[in-house]
Design goal:
This protein is α/β, with parallel strands linked by helices. Helix content is 23%, strand content 40%.
Length: 94
Amino acid sequence: MIIIGADYHPGFQQIAFVDTETGDYGEQKVQHREEAERCYRDLAGQGKKVRVGMEASGHARWFERLLAELKFELWIGDAAGFKPNGHATRRRIG
């Protein structure tokens, strides 16, 4: 499985990822919607299970639809739900 944490902004995404099978990990800045879409579609072509986590955002509807189309698991965290003990409330889509 590939797990991705996405810091989503309307103009770019800063992502961190880990492949739990190989141990590979890294960070990448993905510019613009077109580059992000190409990146995630390429990832889907690898045939691995993918989970993406991100903070709730009102500007990410296209991104949520893309991940659903690609059959990626999406976890959305509510920043207001983060508690002092480090736990977050989450809703799972997909």
